[in-house]
Every structure is written in structure tokens, then in C-alpha cells.
Amino acid sequence: MEKYAGIDIAKRTHWMCVTDGEGHFLMEPRPYDNDADGLSRMVADLDLCGGDVAVGMESTGCYWRSCYKVLAEGGYPVSVINPVVTCAERKSGNLGRAKTDRVDCLVVADALRKQGIAPTPSPDADAAQLRDLCRFRRAVSESMSRTKIQAVALLDQVWPEYGKLFSDKFGDSSRSVLRRFALDEMDADGLADDLRGASRNRFGAAKASDVLQSLRSTCGVPATDALRLQLRLLLDQLDFCAAQLAEIDAEADSLLDAVAPTLPTVPGIGRATAAQIAAEVGDVTRFRDAKALVAYAGLDPTRRQSGGFDPDRNRISKRGSAHLRRSLYIAAQASLRADCEFRDFYDRLRGRGYSHRYAVCAVARKMLCVCWALMRSGEEYSRDRHRARGKAPEGASPVDAGEASLTSHPASVSMMLYPRDSMAVTRSSSWSGSYRCGRLKSTWRLQRHSSDALSYSVHSPRSSAASASWSISCSSYQSMMAASADLLKHFRPSQVERSSTVAAM
Question: Which residues contact 309 (CB under 8 A, 6 or more apart)?
């Protein structure tokens, strides 16, 4: 007989009940203290039910971990359930009228019984340590940011002009000045010596003179002893947080090499971001494909259509790991500063009229798919390998066979999206047309300058990023004609805009 145990997790007291395959109680809900004695009694009660009990619990904060550990060591398969699932189960049944611990454990048991949720495997030790470290690092980083905000607010009171003296208010040079200001030791010689040491001789007496002149002419309120004490303590706190971050990063680096050493090879992903991504993904083999990992990150699209309402743009679900989604969004923004496939992909989406945030989310999704592949294979990222199409078949055009050299602006690639069924290629010197992608209307022009020179240009009046051009050099007139045909087949104006026309000129 099938048996299902549902546990409602809490900080001090857990509640557990056991049901059969029909949902009838085999054991009424009972409380168990969240300590060694209480969890031992929970395992003993499960043993009295005859063993072979599937156990389910919600992933409530960090309080489920000790209970999971004790039950797994007792030999019971434990499923850690997303609270979204149990919430839907509560609303679908007749239990929505009450919300108590006794009812919640029955909801968990029913969700486990009806949906057949698979047991949750024990997390990898290195990945679990890395996750704890990365989440603690984020907490320290946020504390450091709050401290900087407090310090800036204090300076805005006593020295509003200070921000014009240094590009980084909390760099080494600036911090040496703030230290002296907090101690009320703003003599010219000592300040100049501190600036030379902090800036490696970049600043000296001249900078010290500028600082003192700014301090004398400031319009801020007088710096009282209380305000100077606050500034000194805030600077001490910044130094402490910086030391903590350095220690955390050193430990995380060693764990990253054991979990996912090739992630930092992806453009836009540094070692700190790679550690955060690897920590949140954990064991990548638990995801059947890249789409499952995308859904886990909450980057999968949702569609909300009803009757005649069908929106053009859909939103991401945001139902997965917020930590993973945040790290990917930061990495996607960083990749836009590099010459890589992610920047090309971003430019194609922007050229089609999508917003910046929409394009960055799409880049984050694409980056996560690449991370999934690298974590499974253990290989390093290679732009050429990811873009490889294999050897060109016999009789392929010069563009496919690689006989034509292509120099392109990333934005131009976004216009080659719609394959054309057929278009006659004659001895005409140029072709032109227009099409619409969403709300963005663009014009394109393909021109043959000579027997071995071909150029293509795109212009969008609403977006300068969509304006681009590139050229192809071919070895013969025959290869030029083949290259022209290969380019023109990418366009089917009737699919994009019915009124578009393509004319040979």
C-alpha cells in the first residue's frame, strides 16, 4: 500500500501526517520539535507506519535542511516541494478555507500523492558550500553598499563639493583623505604624503592644495565630533567588508574549480559571477535539457491570452531562483561590452525593435543555455565552436563554402532573418527593398560595385543601432553571382510586410 507523509516546516515546531493512496489518514497530524529529540521521534513514527513511506516537505527558508538530513539518513525518500505547488493544491481542494499547520501538512501530503513528485537528491557537498558562500557574499556586498550610501549622505551635509575632487569617492586616494578628515588632521604636508602613497605618486602637493581649498570654501554644515566619529566608523566598516569579500572570493575560487572550472571562459562571466551561477545551478545533470534549467531560473516566457486579447509581448515567469536570474542578468549586461556572440544577438533583437531590457533578458537566457552545455561537457567556451555549421556541402555558394570574406557590423546580421523562397538574380547592379519587424520599418540595399565587390546596407530611421553595412569580396564573377543569390535568399518581404517591394535597378 502506498503511503505519503507531509511535513509542514517551521522554525521551532514541525507538523507531520501520513495518508494512504486514497488520501485517508494513517496517522493524524502531530507536532515535532525542531531538535534532535523531536526529529528522532519523527523517524520513529514513520517506522511504526511500516516503512516505505514517501516524504514531502516545503522548501521553507533554511529550516528544512536539518529535517531533510535526518530523514534521508533514516532511509526515507524525501521530496522538497516548491511552495508554488502546495499553494495551488490548497486552492484546488476544499482546504482553502483554513490555513493552519495541521492543514498545511495534509496539503503537502496531497500534493505529493497526486503529482508524484520525485525524491530530491542530496546536494553535492562542494556545490552546497559554494551556494552558501555566494549568498553570504551577496549579503556582505549589500551591507557594503548601504554603508557607502550612509557615508555619501554624511559628506553631503559637511562637504557637498567633495564629489568633484575624486572620480571614485571610495578609492584608495579618496579614502586616505576621508581618514584624515574624520580624524581632523588636514595639514598640507601629511595630506600630500598620504595622497602620494595611496595613488602611487599620481597625486601630491597640488592635489592636497585643491582638497584643502575645497574644504575651506565648502558650504556644508560644521563637521562636529559626532559626525567625524560616524565617518570614521563607516570607513572602518567598509574596510572590514572589503576584507570579508576578499576572503570569501578566495574560498569560492577553490570551490569553483571543483564544480564548474570552465564557466569563467564565457564572455561577460567573471569568476565571482561564475561561482554564483554554478552555486545556484548545483548538479546540472538533474536538468533534462537547457529548457528545464531556463525554467528553473525563471527566464522562460509566459503567455496570457483570453478571448480577443493576445498581447504582442510576453513576460518571463520569474518563478525560479531569483539569485540565479540576478547573476545572469548582470553577466548579460557585462557581455554587451565585449565583441562576442551575445553582443551580436543583442544587436539583432534591438534591430528588430525590441527594448533594451527585453534583449538583455534574451541574452541572459542564451547565456544560461551555454552554461548548461559547458557544465555538462566540462569544455571551455569557444565562439568558433558554438557557431560552427560543419563542412559546407559540395556545390555550396561561396558564402557557405567560405570562399567569400565577410566583414560585418553586428547589427546588420539581425536583418537576415526571413529566408526567401526564390528571387531571380540577373546582371542588375543593385537590389533594394523595405520590410517591417514589429514596429520598426527598415530599408535595405544590395549593390554590386564590380565583378568582385559586393556591398549590403541596412538603414532604420528610428534606430541608429539598426543602421549597418558590410561587404563581400569574391574571386570571380561566378562566385559574385552565387554570393548575390545567397544573400537575397535571406529575404522574403511578403512574410514581413505585404506591401514591401523588391526591385532590380
Answer: none
> Do the strands 3-8 and 453-459 form a parallel or antiparallel pair, or are they unpaired?
unpaired
Q: Are residues 203 and 195 in contact, defined by beta-carbon separation less than 8 angstroms?
A: yes
Q: Which helix (H) or strand (E) holds 332?
A: helix 322-335
Question: Do residues 360 and 332 touch, judged by C-beta distance below 8 A?
Answer: yes
The closest alpha carbon to 456, from 419, 495, 497, 407, belongs to 407
Residue the block writes with cell 551577496 = 138
Per-residue pLDDT tens digits for 300-344: 988 888 887 777 777 898 888 899 999 999 999 999 998 889 999
Q: What is the pTM of this model?
A: 0.71
Each residue of 376-391: pLDDT tens digit?
999 999 877 655 333 3
Contacts of 341 (CB under 8 A, 6+ apart): 267, 383, 386, 387
326 burial level (CB within 10 Å; 0-12, 13-18, 19+): middle
DSSP H helices in 10-124 = 36-48, 64-73, 83-92, 101-115
How many CB atoms neighbour CB 323 within 10 A?
A: 17
